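Appendix B, example 12.
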Amino acid sequence: MLILAIESSCDETAASVVKDGRYVLSNIIATQMDEHKLYGGVVPEIASRRHTEAICSVVEEALLKAECTLDDIDAIAVTYAPGLIGALLVGVNFAKGLALAKNKPLVPTHHLRSHIAANYISNPELKPPFMCLVVSGGHSHIVKVDDYTKMTVIGKTRDDAAGEAFDKAARAMGMPYPGGVHLDEIAESGNPNAFSLPHPHVSGSEYDFSFSGLKTAVINLIHNASQKGEQLPVADLSASFRKAVVGCLTDNFIRACEAHNCEKLVIAGGVSANRLLRQELSSICAQKGYELYMPEKALCGDNAAMVGSQGYYEYLSGNTASSELNAYATMSIEL
């Protein structure tokens, strides 16, 4: 079964053709990163405009690389939530037009579910049930995946997401957008014990995260040093901050897995490419005898192949939409 997938939830215009939810025939991404660098982050209006300009050529290229036509496609999957509403609407409306014109089933696909599904491509042997840590610029969730389309949120962030905290801390240190990637690289040469940073916990919700206080602690360190005319060692501060964020993520994730007797662990989302997070979880799982699955780094960020994978399972479960499908800026992964 061939799924044509479309992704436009943020600043990547992407299209992919995926076979049977596991095999990627094409995966095309048009990035806007260089333009948004000028502003230090994604500008929603610009993102929407660039999606409109790129989406036709991106879909055409995905079909061409997969050596197929729209007539060969069995269904069209599209990210409809969550994300930047204007950006989402470009992809949703384009997909609706294609589905209507070619009389193809339209499959609404949740962005975070798609991030989890990236693991089905990188790890063809992976099947639910498992516990997943979904970490990205806008989301930090611990999700119990009972089946391909049945999920329960065990824990989530109460304020900033982990990726957002990385980006904001990196920006305060003078790093260009996207800051989290640069912070991760610079942290490799730093001392992770140089600075003592808080490890916040949410009272009454032991698996939830809170990163705003940790982010503020770093920003205050930088401001205080600046007022005194001092310059902090950026590599050491990056390494210390990364250690604190990863510590919060891994502690809650492992405790949630132990509480639910789950020994099959998965990570997903843009922050799943973080070097230390991968290293720490690999080490912990090796010690405890747990299985750990991670997406290849090329599939950690936003892409359409992951949408095609999840779209396949959504279609098999009977989740299709009419031409009345709308986009939503927020939506629970549990649906």
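The first strand starts at residue 2 and ends at 7. The radius of gyration is 20 Å.
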